[in-house]
Design brief:
The chain is α/β, with parallel strands linked by helices. It has two domains: 45 residues, Ribonuclease H1, N-terminal domain (Ribonuclease HI, Chain A); 140 residues, Nucleotidyltransferase, domain 5 (2-Layer Sandwich), CATH 3.30.420. 31% of the residues lie in helices and 25% in strands. It is built from seven helices and eight strands, in the order ββαβαβββαβαααβα. Strands 6-5-4-7-8 form a five-stranded mixed β-sheet. A three-stranded antiparallel β-sheet has the order 2-1-3, with helices on both faces. The protein is globular and about 65 Å long.
Amino acid sequence: MARNKFYAVANGRKPGIYSSWPEAEAQVKGYGGAKYKGFVSRREAEAWMDDPRWGESKGMIKKREIHKLPASSGASIEIYTDGGAINNPGPGGYGVVLLVNGELRELSEGYQHTTNNRMELMACIKGIEALPSSSEKVALFSDSQYVVNGISKGWAKAWRKRNWLKSDGNPAVNADLWARLLDLTEGIDIVFNWVKGHAGHPLNERCDQLAVQSAKGENLVVDSGYKG
């Protein structure tokens, strides 16, 4: 039987492909939600890294559990998002789950210093950027009324029209991320929906897990737009 020569780490301290188990083990041992797999060839490892089988890791939603979810929105693609910052502001992260044709994909990233609202916005941005198609009907679910109302009630568009000033004349906070989100939503069929957080919805709960895990992780990146 061929022995593994390469180890792909999709979710760990430092994702990548390693040529020895001790190197890979250092990235996943004790890391919550670690996702890794051994391969005989680097080509196989690289192919798997391009499309990890997210549904097999501990704590992640499995394909056989999809039938347990609440009724679908009717959209071809559903995006679930969450974000937060420890002590707000502080280390933060976002979590995204995309449901496309019954297949689940997860995204997450941690930041050195940021805020709850910036991570909520970033989760939406990253989820939309990861869409496989711009022609499908999309339903986005967030437990942030700040985000959902900002889009669905037209607040963000009004702020942009006033050069990022609110109706009271004060600057709109997080204008950089609002601008990115507005640009992304133009030209696509997307509806923002509010979902109550920590209410038992498995995909919303999973996004929360990813966000917290990312905020507590290593190799956090800089939120260059945060002006704290």
